[in-house]
Amino acid sequence: MGKVYLMGAGPGDPGLLTVKGKGILTYADVVIYDALVSSAILDLIPPAAERIYAGKRSGRHSRPQEEISSLLIEKAQHHAVVVRLKGGDPFLFGRGAEEMAALVAAQVDVEVIPGVSAGMAAPAYAGIPVTHRDYSSSVLFVTGHEAVGRYQPRVNWRAVAEAAETIVVYMGIYNLPSITHELLQAGKPPETPVAIICWGTTPQQTVLTTTLQELDRDDLDLHLTPPAIVVIGSVVQLHHLLPTLRSLA
């Protein structure tokens, strides 16, 4: 019986893959990877290793979650090092806990290797600190997309609006009008700044800054392409004051 590594690949920039993750990836026997893992990271996989594409983008899953978990168990029975490579961090909206539970139940040795999450990295690359002593002393990470057919029953947007000065929304681009309306109904000021960061930390990164009031329009059509991170709060103002942290070209 081999070992499975639930590994975070980071948010897009291959330089943000952790040192530990890179080391393990270079001697993997099998790698099961998600859609948003960069080609530069996939190039680290040994040529002799088996590569299996799992898909796993919002609304476009090439394999059901149960099939992926079963595949991990099967591969661990025949190979020493199996890597489950996920974008961002496996335990932050990555369903890594579900895969870990399945592996533990099957008595498969498993280790989690955290990754840099887009909710921290994308704002940083856009020159937006999610906390700042003068602007925000609290930050909340929330999903903008839950299971199919179940819109936000577990997200209390009134509580979210009151809980933190900075709100970072993952996978929220398609539900952004509804999320915006909920936050305004909960009492968030209409002039609250918003940044929408698409393809964060990659050469394709784009940043749109606006306000909740501007987003709360029936005719809104942003023409934005996911993956995207939405940052809501006063810290967004710093996007125009601070230089981006590195060149993405």
Short description:
The protein is of the alpha/beta class. The protein has helices at residues 19-25, 39-42, 65-76, 96-105, 118-125, 157-163, 176-185, 212-215, and strands at residues 3-8, 30-34, 50-55, 81-86, 109-113, 139-143, 166-170, 193-198, 206-211, 228-232.
Mean pLDDT: 91
Number of helices: 8
| Relative strand content | 15-25%
The main pleated sheet reads as:
5 strands, parallel
- Strands of the widest sheet, in order across it, are 3-2-4-1-5
**Secondary-structure class:** alpha/beta
User: What share of the residues lie within helices?
Assistant: 10-25%
Q: What would the principal axes of the Cα set say about the shape? A: elongated
Order of helices and strands: EHEHEHEHEHEHEHEEHE
How large is the radius of gyration? 19 Å
Q: What is the end-to-end distance? A: 44 Å
Low-pLDDT stretches = none
Total beta strand runs:
10
Summarize the topology.
Layout: E1 3-8, H1 19-25, E2 30-34, H2 39-42, E3 50-55, H3 65-76, E4 81-86, H4 96-105, E5 109-113, H5 118-125, E6 139-143, H6 157-163, E7 166-170, H7 176-185, E8 193-198, E9 206-211, H8 212-215, E10 228-232
Helix pairs in contact: 3-4, 6-7
